[in-house]
Write a structure and sequence with these properties.
- It contains 8 helices and 5 strands, in the order βαβααβααβααβα.
- With 206 residues, the chain is α/β, with parallel strands linked by helices.
- It has one domain: 3-Layer(aba) Sandwich (Rossmann fold).
- Helix 4 runs antiparallel to helix 5.
- The chain binds adenosine-5'-triphosphate and the ligand Cc1cn([C@H]2C[C@H](O)[C@@H](COP(=O)(O)O)O2)c(=O)[nH]c1=O.
- The site of ligand LXEULUCI has 12 residues, from helix 4.
- Keywords: ATP-binding, Kinase, Nucleotide biosynthesis, Nucleotide-binding, Transferase.
- It is an enzyme of class 2 (transferase).
Length: 206
C-alpha cells in the first residue's frame, strides 16, 4: 500500500497557520508531491457541520466535556472521510490544527486535562496521529487575529487572554513531552522566511 505523510500545523490564534498551510502545500507540490490541505474543526461535511455548532453561539452553549467530545467527533469523521483515505493513496495531508489543539485548548486551558482529552480522541482516530506537528509561535498572534476579525471572533477565539495564555503554555508542554513529533517554529518574519523554516523541519520525511 502507498503511504503519504500526515503533517499538522498548530498554535494559538493568529500565528499564521492558515497562511503557512497554503504556502507549505505550494512548496511541497513544487517538489512533486501530491498534497491535500484541510482544517479542523472541519475538513469533511460532517465535521464542518460540527464546526458551526462549536464556534457559533455563546460560551454557555456547551459544557467543557461536551465541547471536547464534539471536537473529537468532528475529528473522527475528518479522519474517516479525508485524512486516512488521502494518506493511504500516497498523498501528503497538511492540516490546519488537529488533535494537539484539543489537548491544548480543551485539555490544558479548559481544565479537562491533557491525558483525558488524548484518551477520547485516541478512541476516535485509531492511531492516525500526525507524522510531524509544526507548532508556530508568534508573540503578536492575538493582535493579528483581532486586526483580521475585528469584533467577529468566534466562541473560542473570543475567550479571555488568560485562556489563550494557558493554551500557549499547554502547547509548549506538549512539544517538550514529544520533541520528535512536535517542532517549535519561530513564526516571525516574512511568510517566505517562515515557510523555509517549516520545510527545514520536514527534510527527513521528504
Ligand atoms: N509572516 C507574516 N507576516 C505578517 N502577517 C502575517 C504573516 N503570516 C500571516 N499574517 C497575517 O496574520 C493574520 C493571521 O494569519 P493566519 O490567518 O494565517 O493565522 P492563523 O494562525 O491561521 O489564525 P487563526 O488560528 O486565528 O485562524 C492574517 O491577517 C495574515 O494575513
Ligand atoms: C481543532 C480545535 C480548534 N479549537 C479552536 C481554536 C480556534 O479558536 C477555533 C478554530 O478556529 P480557526 O480560525 O479555524 O483556527 O477552534 C479548539 O478549541 N479545539 C480544537 O480541537
Amino acid at each position: 500500500m502507498k503511504c503519504g505523510r500526515f503533517i499538522t500545523l498548530e498554535g494559538g490564534e493568529g500565528v499564521g497557520k492558515s497562511t503557512q498551510v497554503r504556502a507549505l502545500a505550494d512548496a511541497l507540490r513544487a517538489r512533486g508531491l501530491e498534497v491535500v490541505t484541510t482544517r479542523e474543526p472541519g475538513g469533511s461535511d460532517g465535521a464542518e457541520a460540527i464546526r458551526r455548532l462549536l464556534l457559533e453561539g455563546g460560551e454557555e452553549r456547551w459544557s467543557a466535556p461536551a465541547e471536547a467530545l464534539l471536537f473529537a467527533a468532528a475529528r473522527t469523521d475528518h479522519v474517516d472521510k479525508l485524512v486516512r483515505p488521502a494518506i493511504q493513496s500516497g498523498k501528503w495531508v497538511l492540516s490546519d490544527r488537529f488533535i494537539d489543539s484539543s489537548l491544548a485548548y480543551q485539555g490544558g486551558a479548559g481544565g479537562l486535562g491533557i491525558e483525558a482529552v488524548r484518551a477520547i480522541n485516541a478512541f476516535g482516530i485509531e492511531g492516525w496521529f500526525p507524522d510531524r506537528t509544526l507548532l508556530l509561535l508568534h508573540p503578536d498572534g492575538a493582535e493579528r487575529a483581532r486586526a483580521r476579525d475585528g469584533d467577529e471572533s468566534d466562541r473560542i477565539g473570543g475567550r479571555p487572554a488568560s485562556y489563550h495564555d494557558a493554551v500557549e503554555q499547554a502547547f509548549r508542554d506538549i512539544a517538550a513531552a514529544e520533541p520528535d513529533r512536535v517542532r517549535l517554529i519561530d513564526a516571525s518574519g516574512s511568510p517566505e522566511d517562515v515557510t523555509e523554516r517549516l520545510l527545514g523541519t520536514l527534510e527527513d520525511l521528504l
